[in-house]
Write a structure and sequence with these properties.
Blueprint: H1 2-34, H2 36-40, H3 43-49, H4 53-81, H5 91-122, H6 126-150, H7 155-176, H8 178-190
Helix pairs in contact: 1-5, 4-5, 4-6, 5-6, 6-7
């Protein structure tokens, strides 16, 4: 009957989404496990790879950017295309999307830690300050995405809150006075 065909299509869509997200989760998890020493190794990772602090920090930041963009696009597109029962996401989608966001947060923590290591060795600069701010803002956007998925929030609400968070971060950065913050950190480091 047509009802059974519709139900089979819903199951296939749910299964296909779960398999796709599950495979991406597995790929990210394997990357994190294999690269654990490199991601969080600090000075040991520098010695292992024979790279400079700058290379280590930049690689971490660009790995973060790549992972964040890929995950955000994947989740955003799947979230738009996934079949929802009664307007809500399935438990499998919520769990797998949440796990993927959590893994991106691990990569973000690694990038943040690498920047701290670089700053500990060479001090603060404007670029390093703004890189920290960007990582924090990006983490907030991913937490908003997680909220949208878990609590089935409207897409328009997510877009508005993400834009508002960007504006709030710009105001906060202005309030903090980056130059003064950089100077304080570098003086504290010198002392």
């Amino acid at each position: 009957s047509s009802t059974q065909k519709g139900y089979a299509a819903l199951e296939l869509s749910t299964v296909a989404t779960a398999v796709f997200l599950g495979l991406i989760n597995a790929l990210f998890l394997i990357f994190i496990i294999i690269q654990a020493v490199y991601l969080f190794g600090g000075k040991k990772a520098l010695a292992l790879k024979n790279i400079t602090y700058a290379e280590y920090a930049r690689q971490g930041f660009f790995e973060l950017m790549f992972a964040a963009v890929v995950v955000f696009v994947i989740i955003w597109l799947i979230e738009k295309a996934v079949v929802r029962g009664e307007g809500k996401h399935t438990l499998a989608f919520k769990v797998l999307a949440s796990a993927l966001i959590a893994q991106v947060m691990i990569v973000m923590a690694s990038a943040f830690k690498r920047l701290l290591l670089y700053e500990d060795a060479f001090g603060f600069t404007e670029m390093r300050f703004y890189s920290h701010v960007f990582i924090i803002w990006l983490a907030c956007v991913f937490l908003l995405l997680l909220f949208m998925i878990v609590w089935n929030a409207a897409e328009e609400r997510f877009a508005f809150v993400a834009f508002a968070s960007c504006f709030a971060f710009l105001v906060a950065v202005n309030f903090v006075n980056p130059d003064a913050c950089i100077a304080r950190q570098n003086i504290r480091r010198y002392e």
